[in-house]
Every structure is written in structure tokens, then in C-alpha cells.
UniProtKB/TrEMBL annotation, chain A:
Residues 41-173 form the Beta-ketoacyl synthase-like N-terminal domain. This is Beta-ketoacyl synthase chain length factor. Signal peptide: none annotated. InterPro entries: Ketoacyl_synth_N, Thiolase-like.
Length: 346, 83
């Protein structure tokens, strides 16, 4: 598979870069919102008034990553989202009902489609290149990454803006809460809670990916693999074992543990069977659970590889490795969507 | 006209614009308030929702939506017709 270098990263999440110097934003509750930056530093006031929060998050993250990479206009924009622009979808559908399908305003409709974020980024950049949004549930990010790697394999000179966004709205949170997915917990105790449920999360992360290493390269995206709906734990572990045969053991496993007993049982068994002696870190107590949370994990892993140190708050098991060279992100959504993303130092 | 300015600000989500910032005769589009074609659709909906007025001739739009004053005059004229 084509390897890509991460030349820039922008992340709008519940955490910020202070995480790498040991400062963790602590939260308590069943919902972990992003720490909204001042979006006006990237978006004109006339444009911002039409943007829902998830669009602003995506635009901000994309701008930060492009600035870091020193890229004015990418050769492609590829992103993943499971929920899309939920807030504007809700506004539009509510008006549809309350106004009896009459006098519907255009703004909420225009802003309600899943590809609004990538479209808005393209509009702001004047970028008429390839633009694709993957809406594949908990595989949305991974499909966007694989598409990016294929684009780079076709043309290694390209600079790809790839990323993922998902938001929580009051409406979606209420609906998902009815499925008893969430519980009240704190950043500090979530992973040890050992009960049913987790905390909801959201975030936007964008990467500039290139095939050639340069002075701005932070980490290499070495591999992305997915396993959908394995029939058994045995099948899952066989898939991961094959992956490890190809790429070797990582210096750090970044697992998608979220404090839910059933969810974390996969990781506990896998860590014991496949990752003996490998230190384990986690990320969902820092960003919450959402279908594209692995993008936050990538941001964290790239930061760790660049800085050469694992934030103490991220460690779950074992001793934090000094200057890790390979970090494997193993994430799963409901036991159905397993993904493996390998990042390497460069 | 003060009420109409509040309605415009709310309908278009004009953040950080206050009613007193909008001149009665200031052009709403382009060099004035800087509105665009999507805003024009929002203003048409505003007339329907708040004043129960449907614009019969779309070609009149540029004159009706030139400024707050022209909008207010159009609303008054339409309301007088139905009174």
C-alpha cells in the first residue's frame, strides 16, 4: 500500500495542543463537547452566519492543517462523516413540519447535506479539484484515508486534504441516549468505570497528506485496514495477527477503549492475546465516542510521534514508551467496524 | 422600519449587526450590506412569513429589496391594497 506523510494537522476537539505538554481539559457528564475556538480568525463574518457548528469545526481544522503544511490549495479534498450536518438537517426538517412544507428557507437546506463541509472548504479555497465525502458509518474516516492513499498512488505529486468531522446536537444526543449508549463519567474515571455506556463526543480533524517526505512531515501514515462485522473474536484476532505479521508489533497500541464493559472486552482480550508486553494508551476518555473518533486518535498519535512523548493522561496499561516509532490505532464501532491505522515516525 | 431591520437581522442571522447599523437608504446588496442571492430568497420568505405578502412579479425584486426603505414602502403598499 502507498505510504503517505502527514504534512499538517488541524484538530478541533475537546482537547488542544496543551495535551502534549501534559494539560488535559477535564470534563464530567455524558457529553464531551469540542472547545470551540474563535472561528472568525479563519472565516469571514459574512460567511460564518450561514455555517452550522460542524461546518465551522471542519473549516477551522482544514485551515490549520493547510497552514501547517504550507499548502494554499490542495489537489483533492477527501473527508469522512457519519452524521453529516445534523444541526441544519434538524432545522430544515423541523421547518418542513411546522410550516407545513411551505415557506422553507434555503440556507438550512443548503447546509444540511453530508458533503456541505468539504464543499464549503472547497468554496473558500477556490479549489475545483476532486472532492469526495465518505458516509460509511464508523468506517467513514478510514474510507477517506484509503481513497487518499489511492489518489497518492496514482499521482505522488498531489497534496491531499483528508479528514473527518462529526457533531453532537441536542436532538441527536437525546435520540442516542434513548438507546442507553451514554452514562455520566469524568475524563479521569471513564476508562475504569467498567459499566455499561460511554460518553458522547464530537470533533473535526484534517490532515494534509503527501507521498513525499518533507521538512514539515510529522508522521507517516503507513497502513489503514478495515474489518467489517467479523463472525467471531477468532476472526477479528486472525485479521489483526495478519496485520502484525506484515507490519510488526507497534511500540504503542492506541486502543478505542471507551469505558463500556462490552466494548472494552474486545480490547482486553486482544491486548492479552496479540499485544503482550505492548504498552496501551487510550483516547476516547479525552474526546468522547463518535463514529470518526479515530481521526482524533490520529491527531494524538502524530503529536506523540512528533514530540517523542506520550501524554500521561493517555496511558492505560504499561509504561509509556520513550520516543515511540510505531503507533497502532485499533478502533471498533459496536464490535462491527474494526479498523487498524498504523502511524510511524519519520 | 426599525421592526423590519430586526426581522432582516434575525432572518439572515447577521451576527454583530445591530438595527442602527443599517441605514434606511443603504443598499442591501453588493456594496451596501453585502447580501447575496441566497439572502434574496430569505427576504422573500421573510415577506411571506411576517407580512403575508407574496411577490407576484419576480422582476420587481431588485427594486423592492434595494433598501430597508423600499422594502417598507412595498410592504405598506401591499397592506393598503388588502385593507
Amino acid at each position: 500500500m502507498q505510504q503517505a506523510y502527514i504534512q499538517g494537522i488541524g484538530c478541533v476537539s475537546a482537547q488542544d495542543n496543551a495535551l502534549f505538554s501534559g494539560t488535559v481539559r477535564q470534563h464530567e457528564g455524558n457529553r464531551l463537547p469540542v472547545a470551540d475556538p474563535d472561528y472568525k480568525q479563519w472565516i469571514d463574518i459574512k460567511q460564518i452566519r450561514r455555517m452550522g457548528r460542524v461546518i465551522k469545526m471542519g473549516v477551522a481544522a482544514s485551515h490549520i492543517s493547510l497552514e501547517q503544511a504550507g499548502v494554499a490549495r490542495p489537489d483533492a479534498i477527501v473527508m469522512g462523516t457519519a452524521y453529516g450536518c445534523l444541526a441544519d438537517t434538524g432545522v430544515f426538517l423541523n421547518k418542513l413540519v411546522t410550516q407545513n412544507e411551505d415557506m422553507l428557507t434555503p440556507t438550512a437546506f443548503i447546509q444540511s447535506t453530508h458533503n456541505t463541509v468539504s464543499g464549503q472548504i472547497a468554496l473558500m479555497l477556490g479549489c475545483h479539484a476532486y472532492n469526495n465525502t465518505f458516509v460509511h458509518g464508523a468506517f467513514s474516516l478510514e474510507n477517506a484515508l484509503q481513497d487518499s492513499l489511492l489518489l497518492l498512488a496514482e499521482d505522488p505529486s498531489k497534496q491531499i486534504l483528508a479528514g473527518a468531522v462529526d457533531e453532537i446536537t441536542d436532538y441527536s444526543h437525546n435520540i442516542l441516549s434513548r438507546f442507553r449508549l451514554y452514562k455520566n463519567a469524568s475524563t479521569q474515571n471513564l476508562l475504569q468505570s467498567n459499566t455499561h455506556g460511554t460518553i458522547a463526543g464530537e470533533g473535526a480533524v484534517f490532515f494534509v497528506l503527501g507521498a513525499e517526505k518533507n521538512e514539515r512531515s510529522m508522521a507517516a501514515l503507513t497502513a489503514v485496514e478495515m474489518l467489517y462485522n467479523p463472525a467471531s473474536e477468532k476472526e477479528t484476532f486472525a485479521h489483526i495477527a495478519k496485520f502484525l505479521d506484515t507490519y510488526g508489533q507497534p511500540d504503542l497500541l492506541l486502543a478505542g477503549r471507551n469505558g463500556d464493559t462490552k466494548n472494552d472486552a474486545y480490547y482486553a482480550a486482544g491486548e492479552e492475546k496479540l499485544f503482550a508486553g505492548v504498552p496501551v494508551a487510550a483516547f476516547k476518555h479525552l474526546c468522547g465516542e463518535f463514529p470518526t473518533a479515530a481521526a482524533f486518535a490520529m491527531w494524538m498519535a502524530a503529536g506523540v510521534l512528533k514530540n517523542g512523548a506520550v501524554p500521561a493522561a493517555a496511558m492505560f496499561k504499561g509504561k509509556a514508551p520513550a520516543a515511540p516509532k510505531k503507533i497502532l490505532i485499533w478502533n471498533h464501532g459496536g464490535g462491527k467496524h474494526h479498523s487498524l491505522i498504523l502511524l510511524s515516525a519519520c | 422600519m426599525a421592526d423590519l431591520k430586526v426581522q432582516i437581522i434575525q432572518q439572515l442571522n447577521l451576527q454583530e449587526v445591530k438595527p442602527e447599523d443599517i441605514g434606511n437608504d443603504q443598499p442591501l446588496f453588493k456594496e451596501g450590506l453585502g447580501l447575496d442571492s441566497i439572502d434574496a430568497l430569505e427576504l422573500i420568505v421573510l415577506l411571506q412569513q411576517h407580512h403575508n405578502i407574496r411577490i407576484a412579479k419576480p422582476e420587481d425584486g431588485p427594486n423592492i429589496f434595494y433598501s430597508v426603505r423600499t422594502m417598507a414602502e412595498y410592504i405598506t403598499a401591499e397592506q393598503n391594497k388588502t385593507a
